[in-house]
């Protein structure tokens, strides 16, 4: 299937053939023949195109816990898709081979500015890796795989918003849920649009210092906090993940500030404090000690969060769901497998406290998975 040339959403034509992309807070002013910070939105004579609309670089069926979502249909399957590209440049990116591919493997400008022949737009679209997939084919594959949801994940779904939105509309019509696994760096208007078809979002809150976001991820903190607040206000189920990096964001002060913020938005929001493994440009950092994750979990609970999970840690007990009132183990997990779910009619069977989340007690078959 030939790649589709698809005009981008959320941009404004500017004088001199420029285009102002308003998809994310970078607000890129893109010259003719150039791309924005995400490297997959291309300005062709004042018309902005997405190069990633139908270029699905990976698709797989996975436990929803792997996203991670622990309070959204536990034990169910999510059909996960991604394109290449990201609007952040995190030095510790775990999926950098696909997230940073357009930035590292295609030049910023693509001809036409110094007399050389411009690369045809169709050729540029064809250069983007991935298999041409329509929204219909994605939804069909998810249904055939027995998934109950589609997760837009692995890279940053904001940069393939057009594909995600069109797919999500059709998924809803077929009875599937839609999940965003996102860095949260999105502007308000596109966030409001995608929220109309989203059921849940797991947002990475990487740091609580502007300096760290600027230096390590090339982004800003406040728009991400705004996105978390907005998704929750719009009725999207929200979970938050923080990759705890030794010597970067593992101080008690920073962890407490993150926990305080999450609690201010909603104490029911699950917080996943996950173990860091060396990757990409931070391969010299050590693995996060389990004791650090336990300290982060204790801080989260002290600040009033009801559910805090230690992620990427082998062994049992780190990712169990526990009743916030009586401390009964409600969902027992091992890796990405739900071993036991004791939630009854949405409540703790021991003390009848309601358990926050979406379809938490619906009977499900356990789903096993492997850690990366």
Measured by DSSP, the beta-strand proportion falls in: 15-25%
Q: CATH H level of the largest domain: which superfamily?
A: Aldolase class I
If helices are DSSP runs of H or I spanning 4 or more residues, what is the number of helices?
A: 10
What's the architecture of the largest domain in CATH terms? Alpha-Beta Barrel
- Share in helix: 25-40%
Number of strands: 19
CATH class of the largest domain: Alpha Beta
The domain count comes to 3
Given the C-alpha coordinates, what overall shape results? globular
| Distance separating the two termini | 31 Å
CATH third-level topology of the largest domain: TIM Barrel
Order of strands side by side in the largest beta sheet? Answer: 8-9-11-12-13-14-15-16
Secondary-structure element order, as H and E?
EEEEEEEEEHHHEHEHEHEHHEHEHEEEE
Summarize the main sheet.
8 strands, mixed
Task: Evaluate the radius of gyration.
Answer: 21 Å
Residue-averaged pLDDT, rounded? 92
* Helix/strand class: alpha/beta
Poorly predicted tracts of residues: 111-116, 364-372
Topology, pairings included?
Blueprint: E1 6-7, E2 11-13, E3 19-21, E4 29-30, E5 41-44, E6 47-50, E7 55-56, E8 58-63, E9 77-82, H1 96-99, H2 101-105, H3 121-127, E10 131-132, H4 135-144, E11 149-152, H5 161-173, E12 177-182, H6 188-195, E13 200-204, H7 210-217, H8 222-233, E14 237-244, H9 252-265, E15 271-275, H10 290-302, E16 308-311, E17 321-322, E18 329-334, E19 337-341
Parallel strand pairs: 9-11, 11-12, 12-13, 13-14, 14-15, 15-16
Antiparallel strand pairs: 1-6, 2-3, 3-4, 5-6, 7-10, 8-9, 17-18, 18-19
Helix pairs in contact: 4-5, 6-8, 9-10
